[in-house]
């Protein structure tokens, strides 16, 4: 079996995996509750901005951290949002694990690793 066939088999397995099914059901529920969906989208955007700020090497203020913690608490009170976030965490973990497995395999044929490149870029900036 070639790698593409395995990739399609993995995609099929993921579509049948319980966390994926829970995420899909949560998305359907959120589609029926626009205010909860908007709240989730706002939370995800804010979280992404904070993560981007950290990746740039900027420090988060205590106020930013406190605001996000409070927002996370409020957002998770919504049952459908909470279900989505839990399932999404499992899916993201799976994605990272699969990526790590593939990256380890491909490392044997790389001249320089992505980690080494990022490290070098950090030194030169």
Automatic annotation (TrEMBL):
Annotated SUPFAM superfamilies: YheA/YmcA-like (SSF158622)
InterPro entries according to UniProt: Com_YlbF, YheA/YmcA-like_dom_sf
Protein name stated in the entry: Cell fate (Sporulation/competence/biofilm development) regulator YlbF (YheA/YmcA/DUF963 family)
Species assigned in the record: Alicyclobacillus sacchari
Species classification: Bacteria, Bacillati, Bacillota, Bacilli, Bacillales
């Amino acid at each position: 079996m070639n790698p593409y066939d395995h990739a399609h088999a993995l995609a099929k397995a993921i579509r049948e995996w319980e966390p994926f099914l829970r995420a899909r059901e949560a998305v359907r529920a959120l589609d029926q509750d626009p205010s909860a969906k908007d709240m989730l989208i706002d939370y995800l955007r804010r979280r992404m901005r904070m993560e981007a700020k950290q990746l740039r090497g900027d420090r988060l203020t205590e106020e930013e951290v406190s605001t996000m913690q409070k927002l996370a608490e409020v957002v998770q009170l919504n049952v459908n949002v909470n279900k989505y976030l839990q399932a999404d965490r499992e899916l993201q973990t799976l994605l990272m694990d699969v990526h790590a497995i593939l990256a380890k395999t491909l490392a044997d044929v790389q001249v320089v690793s992505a980690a080494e490149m990022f490290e070098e870029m950090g030194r030169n900036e």
